Amino acid sequence: xxxxxxxxxxxxxxxxxxxxxxxxxxxxxxxxxxxxxxxxxxxxxxxxxxxxxxxxxxxxxxxxxxxxxxxxxxxxxxxxxxxxxxxxxxxxxxxxxxxxxxxxxxxxxxxxxxxxxxxxxxxxxxxxxxxxxxxxxxxxxxxxxxxxxxxxxxx
Length: 155
Description:
Number of strands: 9
Shape: globular
CATH class: Alpha Beta
Distance between the termini: 19 Å
Strand content: 25-35%
Number of helices: 3
Helix content: 25-40%
Largest sheet: 5 strands, mixed
Mean pLDDT: 96
Radius of gyration: 15 Å
Structural class: alpha/beta
């Protein structure tokens, strides 16, 4: 039987991908005690390819980057599912962290990260409302335009 969260994903037309394997010496997720799950940063991978590369505000539009942040969150949720099995075990999205590859003149980081934040609320409902940091960086792995990490309280 499909749970509430998986039903919301299906209603949004989202099928979770196989979680991406780490590209270096780290793990995709880790538990900090029995109820806190930390998910490593996820880039906008779609079928093994980075969907959005470059710098936001210099070749990558805010709209493209916002869509990329949404893809990143889908990949974060795929890691959560791999960690806990049943997404209805997520009691709360505690925190999301966003990294936006952009030049020093770019200032719309928050708008980009809304792609991930809005989807968190769509998928997890009120439990998806979270604390957040959004940081501009000069580059990301694979020239990805966006990366998103997460922290989740698990029942």
